[in-house]
Amino acid sequence: MNEQRLIFTDSQKKLLSLLADGKFHSGTVLANTLNISRSAIWKQIESLSSEYGVEIIAVSGKGYKLNRPLELLSETQIKSGLSQQSAELLSNLEIYQQIDSTNRYLVERAQTATASGLVCFAESQTAGKGRRGRQWVSPFGSNIYLSILWRFQNDPASISGLSLAVGVAVIRALRELRLIDIGLKWPNDIYWQQKKLGGILIEVSGEAGGSCSAVIGLGLNLYLPEKETASITQPWVDLEQIRTASPLKDWQSCSRNHISSLLLNHLLPVIAHFETDTLQQYLSEWRSYDVMLEKEVSIYIGNQVIDGIVKGINDDGMLLLQNNAGELKTYASGEVSFRASL
C-alpha cells in the first residue's frame, strides 16, 4: 500500500465505531468486545492518536472517550444517498482514512487509464491543497475533503469557467440543508456571512487541440477544532458554528455521509454536462450568489496592489473591477487574489 494512503485495520475500525458515541468506554469492555488484550487496546489508541490525529481522552477508572462524537464516512451510506443519475455517473468511490491530498492522488490517477467519475474522499489530509499553493487545514473526521476525476473530449479551453459552475453546484447542495446567507466569492470560495466555509480547487491537464482531464477538489468545513485553526489567515466558519447561530431544521439528519451524497448529487451532473451546457448556463445563478458585488477590494498581482470596486463577472467568468481612476478592468482566474479592503 502506498504509505501516503492509509486505511484502518479491522481492529481500529471496530474500536472507533465503539467510541463514536463520544461516551466513556472502559478498557476491559473494549478488550472483551474486540477479543484482544487491554494492552492491545492501548496500542490501538496510541496508533489512532499518533497516525491519524484522533483525539481520545483517557481517564483512570472511566476508560476512553473521543473528544467529540464521530461519524466516519461510509461508502455504503454515501452510495445509498445518490440519485439514479449520479449513481450512473460514478465509476468508483474510494475513501481513505488518511491521504496526503485527494487532489494530488487523482491527478496521479489521471495519468493512467482511469475512467471519468472516480471520486475520492478522505477522513484527513497531511498535505491538503488550497489555492495558490496554500495548505488546506484537514483534521481527522471533521470535514469534507473530496475530489472528482473527469475526462473531457476537448482541450482545456473548452472547460473555462468550470470552477464557477462547480461553485453553483455546491451552493445548490447547501441550500437543500436550508442554509441561508451563503454565497460565492470569485473565483472559487464558498462564503457565509463574509466568512469562508469552503473552497474549490480545479487542476486541468491536457494540450490545445486535444482532450483534457480535470480534477475537481472541494474542501467544506463542517467542524474545525480550535487547535487546528491557528494557521488560517482569513475569516472562516464551519457548519457547526452556523448551526449554533441559526439552527437548521432536521439538522440531525444532515450527517457527513448525507452531506457527501448531497454534494455528489449536484456536482456530478454539472461536471459531466459542462462541455455541452457551458458556463453560460450558470452565469445568472452565479451572479445571484456573488458576495463581493459592489464591495471595495484590493487585488494583488505579484507585488502590485490594485484597489477598486467589484462590478461582478463578465460572460467569460472574469472579474470586473472598477479601479480608483474609474476604469473598468477584467482579471482572469488564477492570476489574482483579493480580499475586502479594511
Beta percentage is 25-35%
3D shape: globular
Alpha carbon gap, first and last residue:
49 Å
- Tell me roughly what share of residues is in helical segments: 25-40%
Q: Mind describing the biggest β-sheet?
A: 7 strands, mixed
CATH superfamily of the largest domain: Bira Bifunctional Protein, Domain 2
* Oligomerization category of the chains in this entry: single chain
Runs in which pLDDT lies below 50 for 5 or more consecutive residues are none
Structure description:
With 342 residues, the protein is of the alpha+beta class. It folds into three domains: 62 residues, Winged helix-like DNA-binding domain superfamily/Winged helix DNA-binding domain (Arc Repressor Mutant, subunit A); 214 residues, Bira Bifunctional Protein, Domain 2 (BirA Bifunctional Protein, domain 2), CATH 3.30.930.10; 45 residues, SH3 type barrels (Roll), CATH 2.30.30. Helices cover 30% and strands 26% of the residues. The strands form four sheets. A seven-stranded mixed beta sheet has the order 4-6-7-11-10-9-8, with helices on both faces. It has a five-stranded antiparallel beta sheet with strand order 15-14-13-12-16, with no helix packed on it. A hairpin with a 2-residue loop joins strand 12 and strand 13.
